[in-house]
Amino acid sequence: MTDPALRAKPRGITLRAVLIGLVLTVVQCHVIPYGEVVVHGTQISHIMPPVAALFTFLVMALVVNAVWRRRHPETALSPAELLTIFAMLGAASGIAGIGGVFFLLSGITGMFYFASAQNHWAQLVHPHVPVWLAPRGEGIIRPFYEGLPATEPIPWGPWVAPIAAWSLFMVLVYAVMLFIAALLAQTWIRHERLTFPLVAMPIEVAQGRGPMFTRSGRVLAVGGALIPVALHAMQNLAWIYPSLPAPAMRRIDFSEAIVAAPWTGLRPVWLSIYPSIMAFTYYIPTEVSFSFWVFTLLRKLTTVYGIAAGLTSSPATEAIPRDSTEFPFPLHQATGGCLALAVLTLWLARRNLARTVRAALGRGERTADTYTWAFWGLLASGALLIAWCVAAGMSVWVALLSLGVFFGFAVALSRIVCEGGAMWILGTLPIPQFLHTTMGTQVMPRGDWIHVQMQSFLSDDTRCLVTPNLFHGFKMGDATQSRAWRIAAAMGAALAVGTVFSLTENVWLAYRYPGGAINLSSPRYAGRGAYLFRVLLDRLTPPREPELGKIGLIGLGAAVTSGLVYLRTQWVWWPLHPVGYVFANTRAMEWFWFSVLFAWLIKTLVLRYGGHRGFVRSLPFAHGLVIGEFASFGFWLIVQYALGIRHHRLFP
Hints:
Helices cover 68% and strands 1% of the residues. It contains 26 helices and 2 strands.
C-alpha cells in the first residue's frame, strides 16, 4: 500500500522548514562549543557530514516525522523540507567549531594578551589593527582569558564593533562560497555526475524510496546498523566502566614493530575501523578508492627511499606534521594538487559559466543552468568583501590574492569530498604559509601580513570548511527538484544566524567559564594566540626570499594532478585518479587507509561476481553502516554530555 505522505501533493522548500532549520541551527551552534571545548570531547564540527546535522536529520526523518506522518500525513515534513533542514544545519556546523570562531577569537585577542616588552607586539602589531577589529585593554582581554567573576557583568561594549565587523566579514566570505557553489554545482551534478557519496543515504531516507525501502533492503539496513551500534556500545561502556572488555577499533598501532631504517619510513602504521568510512568508500567509483590507498602506499615508499638516500630522517609515529618540513613534503604536493583541481574545475565548467555570464549581461538565453542570480551575487559579495579588507587596512591586490587562493583551495577540497567521500579534510598549507613560501616576505608590508595572518582562521583547519556542505545542499535540492535559489537562501540564512550567534556565544562562554578561555581550550586559545604572531614576526625578521625548492614541490603536485587528469581523458581504463593522489598526501589517510582498502576490496568482489545489480542490492547494508555509526555518535555524545565525561573522542 502506498504511503499516504507519498500520495499527498509534494511540497518544496517552505517557510516552516526554514524556521525549523534556523531554530535547530541556534541549538547546534550552542551544543558544538560545549562538546568541543568544555568537555573536550569529539570535535563533531570536523566530520563530514557534520555529526550534529546528520544525527538531527536521522532523528527527524526516521523517528519524529515517521511517527507524525502515520497520524497526520497531510502536515508531515516533505522530502524537500527534511533535506532543506539538513542542508541548513550542515552549512552552519563548521562555524561554531574549534576551527571556526575559536581560531578567529584567539587571533584577535591573543595579540594583546600575549604582548610583552620582549616581543614588542605593541609596536609591531597593534598599530596595524583598527579598534573596530579587536577589543583591547587590560580589563577586557585578561578576563577573557582568565575568567570573570560571576558577579561582574561581561564588558560587551568594546565587543560590539568587533563582533559586528567579523560577522560581516564571515557572512561575506560564506556568501562568496555559496554563490561559487551554486555556479559550479550544476556542472558537478548534471554534467560530470559526481557521486556525492556523503548525502546518498540522506536523500534516500528523506524520499522514502529506493533499495533500502524494500523488504530485503530493510533487513540489510538493520543488519548494517547493528554493527557500528554494537561496536560503539562496547567502546563507550568500557570507557565508563573500565572493567568491561572492548574491541580495539582505532589507532591499533603497528609502528613499534618497524624499527629498522629505511623501513621506518612506513610509520605511522595505524589500523582503524570506521564503518561509515567503509560505507562512503563503497559508494564511490572503484578507481577513486583504489587511488586513495595506492597513492598512500606510494607516499610511504617514497619516504622509505628518502631515508635510504639520506634525504630525510626517520619519521616519528605521528601523522604528517602540519609544516611538512621533511621529504617528500606531502602537504606541499597536496597544495599543488588542490591548485590544479581548482583550475580543472573551472575549465570543465567553462561552457556553463560562459552561458551564465552572457545571460546575466543580456547577451544570451536564460536556461535552467544559467544562475544569473548567483553571478550577480558573487560579484556583489566579492566586491563588498574586498572593500571590507581595504577598510581594515589591506591592499587591494593582497586581499584579492589571499582570498582568491583560499577560495581555490575551498573548491578543490570540496571536490575531494563530493567525488571521493572524504569525511575528514586537512590537506593544504595555510594561506600565510603558502604566501611566505611562494612569494617571500618582502613583497608586501608588515600591515598586510598581519591582516593575512588574522584571516588565517579560514584556512588553518579545513575540516571545518563549509563549502563542501554547500555543494551537498545544492545536490539535495536537485534531488527534490527544488529551486536552487531557494536552497541557497535557506543555507545563507543559516550561515548568517550561525555566525552572529556563534561569535556572541563564544565570547560569553570565555568570560563565564571558570578560568576563562585558557581553561576552555588551552591549545586553541593560549597555544594559537601566542603562536600566530610570533611565527609571523619570525618569518618577517629577517626578510625571506621565496623557497624555490618548495615551490618546485607545489609545482610537482600540480603537474602530477594535471598529468593524471590528462591520462584519464586519453585512456578510459586508466586506473589512477587525481583526487586519490591529492587526498593521499593529507593526514586523513593515516587513519582511514584500512577502512578504504577493505571497502575497495569488498566492492571489487561484489561487482565482479554480482555485477551492478548485486551492488545496488547491497547498498542498504552500506546505508545501515552510516545510520548506525552516526546514530551512535549522537547517542553517546548525549550520554557524555549528561554524565560530564571529558576527554573522550569517538572520531577519528
